[in-house]
Structures are given as C-alpha cells and as structure tokens.
Design a protein that fits this description.
By secondary structure, the chain is of the alpha/beta class. The protein contains twelve helices and 13 strands. The strands form two sheets. It has a seven-stranded mixed sheet with strand order 12-11-7-10-9-8-13, covered by helices on one side. The chain has a six-stranded parallel sheet with strand order 3-2-1-4-5-6, sandwiched between helices. β4, α7 and β5 form a beta-alpha-beta unit. It comes from Paenibacillus silvestris.
Length: 319
C-alpha cells in the first residue's frame, strides 16, 4: 500500500481563508506552480516576491497537488485557483470529501479549527491545520480526544523548520548551559505567538513549566520557565515587522543571535513534512509537542487576562 501511495500523486484540498493570511496562494503554488500574471495581483505582495526568487525546478513539492479549493469568500477562491493553478473550486468544504486524500485548513484563528476540522475527522481524512491549532482549553481537549482515537491531524508553525535556526536544533553544547533565551514575532499573541514559540521549542525541547504575560494585548511580553534551560522571553508585538524571528540564545560559555530570513524554505519544508506523514503514517514530531505548545499559547492568554499572573502549564487542558 505504501508503495502505491508513493507512486500516485496525492490530491490535496485547501480550505479556508481569513484576513491577514495568504497561505492558500503560497502553499498551493508550492505544489502546483503558479500563473505569474495572476499571482502578481495577490493581495499579499510578499508572496509573489518570494515565489519569484525560487528557481522553477525547485519550486514544487513532488508527490502531491492541490486539486480543490474553498474559501470563506467565494471571490477569493476563484482568484487563488487562477493564480495557483487549482482545477476545482467548491461551494462547501464538505464537497471535497470523496475527491481528495487530505485537506489543509489554511486559517490561523485557533478558535475556529475544531468546527473547520470536524467534517473531515468524522470521515477519516487526514488534516494539516495551520498554526495555532487552538487558542483555548476546550478545543485542545477535543483535538486530544480525536488524536487519541486515531485521527491523523498535524499542525505546526513554519518556524519549526527555519533553516537559520537548524544548527542550534542540532547542538547548543558550545554555548554552555543556557540561562536566557528570547524570540520575537510581529502581530498578535493569539495568531502569531506560536511562530515564536515553535521557533525555540525544537532547540529547548519539552519541559516548559509556567508562563507570565506582563504585557498587553498589543504588546505581549511572555516570560516562561523551562525545567532545564532557565528563563525564556517570548515577545509578540503588533507592529514589530522589522524584527520578526529574532532569536537570542545566552549561555554560560557563549551566546548566539540569529534571525529568520528564508520564508519560502520554512513553508516548503513544513509542507513536505506533512506529505511525508501522509505517505508513511509516521509523525515528523510527536503530537505531545503540539499539545505543550498549545498550553503555552493558552497560558500566555490566561496570564494576560489575569493581569500578569504566573500560570503553571500543568493546569492547562489536562485531558
């Protein structure tokens, strides 16, 4: 069966599009290639810029194509389909059932994801969910139950695959013992905090103990304690566009400062990991990591709403 899957291109549906998120354009182009004239009218100008930098022979992910699209506003679907060469536009998300091998939920509002995923969980279609998977405890419990019952659900930030951070995922031995780590992102904690969190998680590993958000809704300064690696500051500020993805690792022997640069690489590698998961049924990382990351997102929200209280992660959504 696995050999058959590897020989047959997988059919993927892209579902959903919300304000501030152009993933249906870029992700679909990474599978299908794209129409340069139509993509020039993409409402997210950074997307055609970084797509154009890639050699045509390195643009596409082999083994799958985006065959169907649905967006919340039907006009968006028509334009994405034209720009990213998607043959079928459907009028309801459920219309793709029976015609695709997997779906990608390309929206980043965590509180919507349970209901966006439910029809496909119920019929056993594998799902990739854009970050963050959730932003509240009840929805995290639902995803925990679904995965425990065998649902094939994967969610991640592309920053997990940031190539500039990869050397520190391999080893931080030269830095000595870490005492302080910081990472930045623009936009909101609810939608973009996970970009910062998942940047550092593969470096520091599991073991986050507590969160304290001493900032505001527009200026989140979230202080975490890690069991092994000391203090961690995760910053999400609305207009911090010039400093998104700035990582600092401070150890007893040395320090390192590095920033993310190659958005295309991060997205493409993330999507390749999902396709590999579909082919092999082997997760690229345990779902327990996603669970801990979601606890961190939720704890940051709770602490802010409680005026900067310290929130133990063990209190969050133990199912």
């Amino acid at each position: 069966m696995r050999g058959e899957l590897l020989m047959q291109p997988l059919r993927i549906a892209v579902l959903g599009m919300v304000d501030g998120n152009g993933h249906p354009y870029s992700w679909s182009a990474m599978f299908n290639n794209y129409d340069k004239a139509a993509m020039a009218d993409c409402p997210y100008p950074a997307i055609p810029v970084y797509l154009a930098k890639e050699p045509n022979e390195k643009l596409q992910i082999p083994g799958a194509s985006v065959t169907h699209i649905w967006t919340d506003d039907p006009k968006d679907a028509e334009h994405v389909a034209k720009a990213s060469l998607i043959p079928h536009v459907v009028s309801r998300p459920e219309d793709v059932i029976g015609h695709v091998d997997a779906v990608m939920i390309t929206t980043d509002k965590g509180y919507e994801h349970v209901e966006r995923c439910r029809p496909f969980v119920e019929v056993g279609i594998p799902i990739f969910v854009d970050k963050p998977l959730v932003d509240n405890e009840s929805d995290l419990r639902q995803f925990q139950r679904w995965v425990r019952d065998g649902a094939r659900i994967m969610s991640s930030s592309c920053m997990r695959y940031c190539k500039e951070f990869m050397p520190y995922r391999t080893s931080i031995h030269s830095l000595g013992e870490l005492r302080y780590t910081s990472i930045t992102t623009c936009k909101s904690w609810e939608r973009y905090g996970i970009h910062a969190l998942e940047s550092i998680y593969p470096i520091l590993g599991p073991g986050f103990l507590s969160a304290q958000n001493v900032g505001t809704k527009e200026r989140n300064i979230v202080l975490f304690k890690h069991r092994t690696h000391g203090d961690v500051a995760v910053i999400a500020i609305d207009d911090l566009y010039g400093s998104h993805g700035l990582l600092q690792l401070c150890g007893t022997s040395a320090s390192a400062t590095v920033s993310s640069q190659d958005t295309f690489y991060s997205f493409k590698t993330q999507l390749e990991a999902f396709i590999e998961y579909l082919h092999t049924d082997e997760r690229p990382f345990p779902f327990s990591e996603t669970e801990e990351l979601m606890r961190m997102v939720i704890a940051g929200i709770r602490s802010r709403e409680e005026g900067g209280s310290i929130v133990p992660l063990e209190e969050i959504a133990a199912d």
